[in-house]
Automatic annotation (TrEMBL):
<dbReference type="GO" id="GO:0006163">
    <property type="term" value="P:purine nucleotide metabolic process"/>
</dbReference>
<dbReference type="Pfam" id="PF02540">
    <property type="entry name" value="NAD_synthase"/>
</dbReference>
<keyword id="KW-0808">Transferase</keyword>
<dbReference type="InterPro" id="IPR052188">
    <property type="entry name" value="Ni-pincer_cofactor_biosynth"/>
</dbReference>
<dbReference type="InterPro" id="IPR022310">
    <property type="entry name" value="NAD/GMP_synthase"/>
</dbReference>
<feature type="domain" description="NAD/GMP synthase">
    <location>
        <begin position="16"/>
        <end position="84"/>
    </location>
</feature>
<protein>
    <submittedName>
        <fullName>ATP-dependent sacrificial sulfur transferase LarE</fullName>
    </submittedName>
</protein>
<feature type="active site" description="Nucleophile and sulfur donor">
    <location>
        <position position="175"/>
    </location>
</feature>
<dbReference type="GO" id="GO:0016783">
    <property type="term" value="F:sulfurtransferase activity"/>
</dbReference>
<dbReference type="InterPro" id="IPR005232">
    <property type="entry name" value="LarE"/>
</dbReference>
<dbReference type="InterPro" id="IPR014729">
    <property type="entry name" value="Rossmann-like_a/b/a_fold"/>
</dbReference>
Amino acid sequence: MVELQEKNLHLGEILKKMGRVIVAFSGGVDSAVVLKRAQQELGDNVLAVIVKSELFRKSEYNAAVKFAEDLGVSVRQIEMKELDHPAIAANNPDSWYYSKKLLYTHLNELAEELDYPYVLDGMIMDDMEDFRPGLKARTEEGIRSVLQEAHFYKKEVRALAKELDLPVWNKLASCSLASRFPYGTKLDKQKVDQVNQAELYLKGIGFDEVRVRYHENVARIEVTAEKIAELITKRTEVQHKLVFLGFDYVSVDLRGYRTGSMNEVLPEAAGDKIAANA
């Protein structure tokens, strides 16, 4: 607890020196802590920028907007057409770099227009454990990862979020819907919507931690190990729904829910350099 308080004080010192900041706010716990602490230290000199994209759920976007507005910070909503970007739609391992590059470029342009000297994101120390293409884009664009600068790990971020009474302190991690597709499978709105609707359905029947991995006409469902048996008991209705959504076959991954499962088929050398995207 003492170490957490020391890190929190350090975070406050970092923020105070910035004076005026834009926070790239996703609605997740990491960026929520950045936004709240920035507000505490800088008051009205904080702008939350929330990005709408075809690769993130509308419900997540709406929740992020509501959270920021309820917090009382200024909010700017912008939109990115990621599927219009050939390098992102190609869905190769380096597509994550181009996605972050597009985001950070938008944010820097807005910061220059509105005279904000700093743009902050929510990256944490855990993100340093793997090579993440987004880190390269972050560094190139000069974005500040203040939680990393204050040496916060995920468990500490959640603890601080709970202490700050943020309702997202225990929120499950979310990720771009692109992570549901094998590398090299070109993305389009129909495929993304198909996977999104399948996951929303499964969440609606009790599977909070779930991924539907897209393999052309096959849906590979990942749920936590303790929920696999329950999923099997609901196999008839699940099969019916996912076939209705456009899949010919529905499978259950017996290894269960895990982040980065699309990276497992990459050559080991390449896999070592790919982030464990969700």
